[in-house]
């Protein structure tokens, strides 16, 4: 059995109320992939934008870079704030993109290091990037890296889902979420996916904010541009890391969500030439 099937079995046994949701919705399915740097730039560009507006800007950004394969730190750093403003990117977001690219260029971050970091280290390192806060990191971990045990405690859709599932009088605070959802470990990402579907089925309105990490829009998401923060760089040593590419979920239809459930993959070995060949070693 794959990791998603294991997650569903565990969640059914751990929480009868959640089991009823699992019966109502199809399981998460596989989809396509993008490199972590591309997924993170996409996350920044879509912040606080309607889907159509975000897609328009992202398309122009890709064209400016010469295609998705051209979205690399060196190219992003070569783009001036004026060039980015001309395609609709705000000055603040331009600074976020440049900060992300600089952290890649100096070795603080890399695709291989990101894929191989544990959840806690990854959260710490990514929130060092200006413009990337806890919500964006959680979405990236779930939808791009397919980490199985991520609970987005600041996501309004997941919090609303917990309130509805357990018939709570008030929306649970982020500080309460870990305790309420403890029984779902180690598959809280999959549980969160079912909560998003539950809230959608209840007819709750979706947020105007669009895609995070290239992922389909979770309903009622809470996406804020975090305040810029200054921290001392902490250099990573990626020498022993395998060059892995994180996965990225893209939107096929605005209302038809397809979740990339690739939790069963244990390693991805990518050899980069003019063409890319990826081999997947499943559990």
Summarize the structure.
The protein has helices at 3-14, 16-24, 36-46, 51-65, 73-78, 81-86, 91-105, 111-116, 119-126, 134-143, 156-165, 174-180, 188-201, and strands spanning 265-272, 276-282. With 283 residues, the chain is mainly alpha-helical.
Structure keywords:
single chain, 283 residues, mainly alpha, Endonuclease Iii, domain 2, Endonuclease III, domain 1, two-stranded antiparallel ribbon, 13 helices, 2 strands, 46% helix, 5% strand, elongated, disordered C terminus, DNA-3-methyladenine glycosylase activity, DNA_glycosylase
CATH class of the domain at 36-136: Mainly Alpha
- CATH H level, superfamily name of the domain at 36-136: Hypothetical protein, domain 2
So what's the overall shape?
Answer: elongated
Protein structure class: mainly alpha
- Neighbour order of strands in the largest sheet: 1-2
Order of helices and strands: HHHHHHHHHHHHHEE
Beta-strand residue fraction:
5-15%
Radius of gyration: 18 Å
Q: How much helix is in the residues?
A: 40-55%
Count the strands?
2
CATH architecture term of the domain at 36-136? Orthogonal Bundle
Structure description:
By secondary structure, the chain is mainly alpha-helical. Among the domains are: 3-31 and 149-202, Endonuclease Iii, domain 2; 36-136, Hypothetical protein, domain 2 (Endonuclease III, domain 1, Orthogonal Bundle). It has 13 helices and 2 strands. The protein has helices at 3-14, 16-24, 36-46, 51-65, 73-78, 81-86, 91-105, 111-116, 119-126, 134-143, 156-165, 174-180, 188-201, and strands at 265-272, 276-282. A two-stranded antiparallel sheet has the order 1-2. Strand 1 and strand 2 form a beta hairpin. Helix 3 (36-46) runs antiparallel to helix 7 (91-105). The chain is elongated. It comes from Gossypium harknessii. Residues 45-200 form the HhH-GPD domain. Keywords: DNA damage, DNA repair. This is HhH-GPD domain-containing protein. One of its GO terms (molecular function) is DNA-7-methylguanine glycosylase activity.
């Amino acid at each position: 059995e794959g990791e998603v099937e294991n997650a569903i079995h565990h969640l059914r046994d751990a929480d009868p109320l959640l089991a009823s949701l699992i019966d109502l919705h199809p399981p998460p399915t596989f989809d396509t992939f993008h490199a972590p740097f591309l997924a993170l730039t996409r996350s920044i560009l879509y912040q606080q934008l309607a889907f159509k507006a975000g897609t328009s800007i992202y398309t122009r950004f890709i064209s400016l870079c010469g295609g998705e394969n051209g979205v690399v730190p060196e190219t992003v750093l070569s783009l001036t704030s004026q060039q980015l403003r001309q395609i609709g990117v705000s000055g603040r977001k331009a600074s976020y993109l440049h900060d992300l690219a600089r952290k890649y260029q100096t070795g603080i971050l890399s695709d291989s290091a990101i894929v191989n970091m544990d959840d806690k280290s990854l959260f710490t390192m990514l929130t060092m990037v200006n413009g990337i806060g806890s919500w964006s990191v959680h979405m990236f971990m779930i939808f791009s890296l397919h980490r199985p045990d991520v609970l987005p405690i600041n996501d309004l859709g997941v919090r609303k889902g917990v309130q509805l599932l357990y018939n709570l009088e008030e929306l649970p605070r982020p500080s309460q979420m870990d305790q309420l959802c403890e029984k779902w470990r180690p598959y809280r990402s999959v549980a969160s996916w079912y909560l998003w579907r539950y809230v959608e089925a209840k007819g709750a309105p979706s947020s105007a904010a669009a895609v995070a990490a290239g992922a389909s829009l979770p309903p009622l998401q809470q996406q804020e541009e975090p305040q810029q923060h200054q921290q001392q760089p902490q250099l990573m040593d990626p020498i022993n890391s395998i060059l892995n590419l994180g996965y990225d979920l893209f939107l096929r239809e605005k209302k038809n969500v397809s979740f990339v459930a690739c939790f069963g993959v244990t390693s991805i070995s990518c050899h980069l030439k003019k063409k890319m060949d990826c081999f997947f070693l499943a559990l």
